[in-house]
Design goal:
15-stranded parallel sheet, 0% helix
């Protein structure tokens, strides 16, 4: 799936359980209720995901496993990114709401994975959260 805009959805793009998906160049705008902006296994590249608010404990911008690179996610309720193990996560940006009332996670990655050159700010439950062992964690900006 390449290029285009999606808005007003429960799940914007859902390509699970298919392996080898390509999701590139989309502009995904959530709202309420929206569970996830992009769900895919394969290549997720150069997308913008804004405002995936979900319900009380849902709302993730990008759920992906594979190559996740050059994406921008802002304002999701639960997490900007939730990345599966064995992934390559390079050059992404995760901007939280900065609200202590609804804390979110910036980039959550299951290890082992390669996590390099990402930026995550204003996420209340952690900007970069690595779960498990064996992640290559280099050159990330996640105060």
């Amino acid at each position: 799936m390449r290029n285009g805009s999606i808005s007003g959805f429960f799940i914007g793009v859902d390509l699970e359980p298919a392996d080898g998906s390509i999701v590139e160049g989309l502009r995904v705008f959530g709202g309420t209720p929206s569970f996830a902006g992009i769900v895919a296994t394969g290549i997720v590249k150069g997308n913008t995901v804004v405002g995936v608010f979900g319900g009380i404990a849902t709302g993730t911008g990008i759920f992906a496993t594979g190559i996740v690179t050059g994406n921008y996610v802002i304002g999701s309720r639960l997490a900007q990114y939730d990345i599966g193990e064995g992934s390559t996560v390079i050059g992404n940006t995760a901007v939280g709401k900065g609200s202590p009332a609804v804390p979110d996670v910036g980039i959550s990655v299951s290890c082992p994975s390669n996590v390099t050159d990402n930026t995550a700010v204003n996420n209340g439950r952690g900007n970069l959260v690595l779960t498990g062992n064996g992640c290559n964690n280099t050159n990330n900006v996640a105060p």
